[in-house]
Amino acid sequence: MSPVRLIASRIFIALLVAIALVYAGDFISVRVRMRHPKPNDPFETVTALRILAIPQKDGKTEFSVDVQQPQQTGVCVHSLFPQSGAPPCWYLKRQFAQPIPMTIFRFSNR
User: Containing domain of residue 62, as a range?
Assistant: First the structure.
């Protein structure tokens, strides 16, 4: 095996071990906090407005609150990775902050 390949494989293995250790630490942290829960720790319920991004004919985008379902709610966990079937709060809050893109289909009566 060439020295470059040996170094690359060792770096790859070290990276995998580091990621596994970070995930294990995150997992243990959530489990410990689940045994001693506090309000909104480790799980939190996030509520946000559902904002729709509606494209206009002139190429601009109009933003409005969804009339049928104005709020969206989700449960998240305070961690780096998804744990216990819940997404991390940093990811869910970022997803809720993005407007929902709408597509307008035009049908012709031919």
Answer: 3-101
Q: Closest Cα to residue 14, out of 26, 6, 4, 3?
A: 6
Task: Using the structure block, give the residue that is written with the tokens 């720790």.
Answer: 41
- Chain mean position to CA 8: 31
Is the pLDDT score of 74 beyond 80? yes
Mean pLDDT, rounded, of the chain: 91
**Residue type for position 26:** D
Q: Is residue 84 part of a domain?
A: yes
- Does residue 106 form part of some domain? no
User: Could you give the number of structural domains in the chain?
Assistant: 1
Rounded CA separation 59/87 (Å): 34
